[in-house]
Amino acid sequence: MAEASRPMSAEHHAAVPLWRDVRILRWFFQIAILSLVVAGIWVLARNLVTNLNALGLSLSFDFLQRPAGFAISEGPVFDSRGTIWQAYLVGVTNSLRVIGIGIVLATILGIIVGVARLSNNWLTSKVALVFIEVIQNTPLLLQLFFWFVLVRSLPRQRRDEIISIPGGDIRLGPVDIPPLAYFSQRGAAIVGVERHESFSAWWPFLVVGLLIAIALWIFWVRRKESQGKPPTGQFWLAVAGFVLVGAVGWLIVPGSPVKLTIPTLTGEGIIVNYEGGWQLTNNFQAVLVGLVLYTAAFIAEVVRAGIQAVAHGQVEAATALGFNRGQQLRLIILPQAMRVIIPPLINQYLNLAKNSSLAIAVAFPDLFNISQTIGNQTGQNVQIIAMVMLSYLAMSLSISLVMNFVNSRMQLVER
Amino acid sequence: MIERFTKSRWAIFVVGMIIGMIVLVACGASAQPAAPAATEEMAAQPAAETEQPAAETEQPAAMTEEAAPPVQTGEGTLAEVMARGTLKCGIHGSLPGFGFIDASGTNSGFDVDYCRAIAAAVLGDANAVEYVPLNADQRFPALQTGEIDVLIRNTTWTLTRDADLGLDFTVTTFYDGQGYIVRAADGFESVADLDGGTICVTSGTTTEANLADNFASLGLTYTPNVFSETPESFGTFVDGACDAYTSDKSQLASLASATDNPSDYVILPETISKEPLGPLVRANDSDWHDVVAWTVYATLQAEELGISQANVDDFTSDDNIGVQRLLGTGDDDLGALLGLSKDWAYQVVKQVGNYADIYERNIAPIGIPRAGTLNALWTDGGLMYAPAWR
Q1: If we measure between CA atoms, which residue out of A80, A83, A142, A71 comes closest to residue A369?
Q2: Is residue B313 scored above 50 in pLDDT?
Q3: ipTM surpassing 0.85, yes or no?
Q4: CATH code at A102?
Q5: How far is A149 from chain B (nearest CA, A)?
Q6: What global pTM score does this model have?
Q7: How many domains does chain A have?
Q8: Which of B202, B198, B295, B204 is nearest to B252 (CA)?
């Protein structure tokens, strides 16, 4: 049989005409499509260059070294005599700040809401459901405006101004929890920590402390396991180790490496500003709250789906072994759910990064906002748009890279 | 069988989606020509009457003059506008007095009237305008890419913009200067009182850069709050989140006049910059540049000659040679040199008015008097001056 079929297939093969040969067709179509794409790009590029020349515009990036001539409301120190390139970097920094903080907060809130959605408690589950449905089904831009208007409707930022109403006096002014936090329509100022010069000598202690904490954790778990006991108490042991090393470092290093900064109201009369503390402008608050809630709603659904993807038998087995709800979630369900959760989670992180460009609507000076200003002051729109696209691309690819690494570590290792 | 059934269902689904997409795309594509077509019909009546003689007289002019004006040849904005039958005019969509939607739901304002004047000059119908509301960031790209024919949107004439944007400024239609508006209750009396304050400003404007210069030269500090849309920016100031809002003084007056209680706001006395506002066209399009510039000049020349929208018909039989040249009622056909009809300036004055008409209709109601300002006619001590009409 084998002998009979071999010559037949060879003959059959020889008889295939070129236009039906799969290998040739594959190459042909790939080359055809590639050349179409290249031709398309070439036509567009030529069109661009011709039209720019007709208008007397250039594609040079020299304008980046010109003085910017505009100020930026927040971010790294920048004044209007800085170059356009520096202004652009301020925008990048502000974007990274809102994306970085946003991703952390959205993940935490998303996991909480996602777990709450599956709670047996009727109220908890329904509150989570309403949150998810309302946030997911309204446009993000609208939500940003909503939060911005909400922040702006707080009292004005000014010194005490008491008005009397029946039933008592009301103090108009920032909503204060002195001296910890001040909230006004301009923004919030809260107690924060500030680095001092000796911080550079102190942080190695923190790193060592962290390593020691991890080592203690592993040691304690192994010891308990070898004794045949359930591993408990490793968390507090690790914290104690970390604090101990940090405290030793604090005593060795001259002066205090970090200290609290407390916001204080400065200025007399109508214009008063907060100095010190961590300052969150109304723009930043609106962007951050909007992005975090919006992304958290989607992450919550991802988490819910991931948890539900873990077979119910796992929970039953864990219950049979005497795990309580918290342990089941932490030790049995989440580690398995993670494998399902992480790939869509990467998408949500990317969405958050890209949605951060909506910050322009609430005047947060992010990358996109500043690039719009630059484009307008200089007219070099083609270059600016290209730079913005590359910047967002770099951010998104970095997030993908990190998350794909995490994903590859989390996936089931088959032996 | 089941598999084949689901496959064919998929095929039907996919084909349905594709057909749906094509229909949607086709609707989107046809929507744009459809709108001009409707206005074109309306425009056709007056345009046809006035353009007929122009077209006839144009032929010899084009032939004798070696360099034929690119009429109806598909080059140049003038030919494009004439072929399309509507003028695409970039305006401010929400600035009372300059470009906004008025109570009757139509675009109105000083800048809008100049769009109408250009349409009257080129197409013979002031209503043959397609308005494109733009924010400050969108305006230059919109003109650079040909989305609009002319940009008349409170745009300050600066060296950088003129030289670097691939655009040309034509004529100044309004001399303005930047100022600050504050709440009357706050008691600020000068810019120095704003030290350390928060200032709302609209992005992509000369204002943003002037603000930085002004505070730096006075040695004061401030926090900018930069919005892309004027209403958002001014609204944030009104809410109290900014101590002041800065822009051209005409704009400040206009925005304050639209608030619930205009007397709550005060414009500080300082004028910190020169802000000559006027129409822009794409660079290297001289014919179109001339048409836009001379349309503005026609409104000034008409005012200088005492011809207004109300009395223009009294001048059609006037034997003053200057009046005849302007209105095209004499032997000179100056319109043909611009590629326009003989009575183009008559149409501008008749349908839109002279400079004083346009000013009184739009700017006076928002509380900016004209007398004694740079916007008065040169004969009254202002800067409004049309070159020689011959």
Answers
A1: A71
A2: yes
A3: no
A4: 1.10.3720.10
A5: 9
A6: 0.74
A7: 1
A8: B202
